[in-house]
Design goal:
By secondary structure, the protein is mainly α. The chain has seven helices and two strands; from the N terminus they run H-H-H-H-E-E-H-H-H. The protein is rod-shaped and about 95 Å long. The model has no long low-confidence stretch (mean pLDDT 84).
Length: 222
């Protein structure tokens, strides 16, 4: 492999360097997003258990807890802030909210669920670019290298295997490099997209359950 790279033309070397940067960014993104998804999953599980065990909707909110990096807690915190603002009546809290207020809280929660989903999704575009772009970049290096090799053979006026083989093998190494970037990126991207969908569905289910708890406890009867 060292000999093949040594025989590569400058344009092939430039493409290999680009693919190296692609690979570094792809692996960094995969590791960072996996850690982020796992942390969000664990914190969501912990918070959801705490939420289901509380007696009143605002119990956790009144304790002024902070859970950094937990999407469910962020949704809960914003919903409770909106609910608390609507319940306040001077220094006390009212015991009922209107249907109009409930609809406002629902829309607020839906917006926050979408924002948390986008936050978890951020960075995946780098993997998508690596999956789709790396093979074509590698193919460009191969075609370019083969073209130069055949042009050199034509100018020399003789086609010998010893003359052609180093140039062709050096050209093909860019395709191999492109695939080595794209294949791990593809598996990482698909796995992260699946995790993102699971997190989004669970976050949406939590928001609906949260709304149901608010309605059961505070929505005035008509």
């Amino acid at each position: 492999m060292a000999y093949v790279i040594k025989m590569a033309r400058p344009e092939a070397v430039a493409i290999l360097i680009c693919l190296l940067f692609f690979s570094v960014f792809a692996w960094a993104t995969i590791i960072q997003k996996v850690l982020q998804m796992n942390r969000a999953r664990k914190l969501d599980m912990y918070f959801e258990n705490e939420f289901r065990n509380q007696h009143h909707v605002l119990d956790i909110y009144d304790r002024q807890l902070q859970v950094e990096g937990c999407p469910m807690f962020t949704v809960y915190q914003l919903g409770c802030s909106e609910l608390d603002a609507r319940l306040k009546d001077g220094d006390t809290r009212k015991h009922r909210i209107s249907m109009k207020t409930m609809e406002h809280i629902k829309r607020t929660l839906e917006g926050e669920v979408a924002r948390q989903s986008l936050k978890l999704e951020s960075g995946l575009i780098l993997l998508a670019i690596a999956v789709s772009g790396a093979p074509f970049l590698g193919l460009l290096g191969t075609v370019w290298g083969v073209m130069d090799t055949f042009a050199s053979v034509g100018m020399a006026g003789q086609a010998e295997l010893a003359t052609m083989a180093p140039g062709v093998s050096a050209a093909l190494v860019t395709t191999v490099a492109g695939l080595l970037v794209a294949i791990p990126s593809m598996f990482g991207y698909n796995g992260l997209v699946h995790s993102l969908r699971v997190r989004t569905v669970e976050l949406d289910n939590f928001a609906q359950f949260f709304v149901s708890k608010i309605e059961a406890e505070y929505l005035e009867e008509t």
